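Run log, item B.
One chain of 207 residues. Sequence copied directly from the ordering sheet:
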Amino acid sequence: MTRFLQESPWCSKHVTNQRLSYLMETIRQTRATRGDTRPITFLSLDDTLCKKERSTVKMERLDFHYSHSEGKSVWSHSLVTAHVVTGDISVAWDFRSYFRKEDCIERNIPFKSKNELAIELIEIYSSSPDEHIYVLIDSWYTSKKRIDACAQKGFHVIGAFRSNRMIAPFGMRIKASTFASAVLRPTDLCPVTVEGSRIRCTRMKDR
């Protein structure tokens, strides 16, 4: 197997496509067996670091990337990942490697930001017409470009966003924090219980 991976002329893209086709077919067969007529799928996007010891120097494309958990840059590979959860099936779906702009310039390859890589993962995800896709993202990836990319695919978005983000409810452009403190009234909020925690929510249409 090692010689095949190192020496044989195989195409990693073709292998990935075959793997994703197999996973999708397995998921659909499982749904059909259970009589699931309204499939709901969660596509979770995030980034992560595959940390290596500093003595590791022969592995390709290692670089220093900032780790929020450690509060410093660490010697690692940086990945943007997609994970699929539907029913009791949970699988690692796909990923894209992130390389710093300086590294891309040095190697004469196109630079793609983590947000652009996340959009790429959204765009290539294939869903059936009756499937309800919910894309889960954190505040780093919640932006107009990502939401628009999901909308074009007919996907729903569940994501956090920073309180200083600008929103435009009722055509009024305003900071989310200002809207929550100065515009919303208690009667506009509905209590919701999530895993034992009670939060207050409101529904609005942007523009």
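Observations after the first pass:
- The longest helix spans residues 12-34.
- The mean pLDDT is 87.
Flagged for discussion on Thursday.
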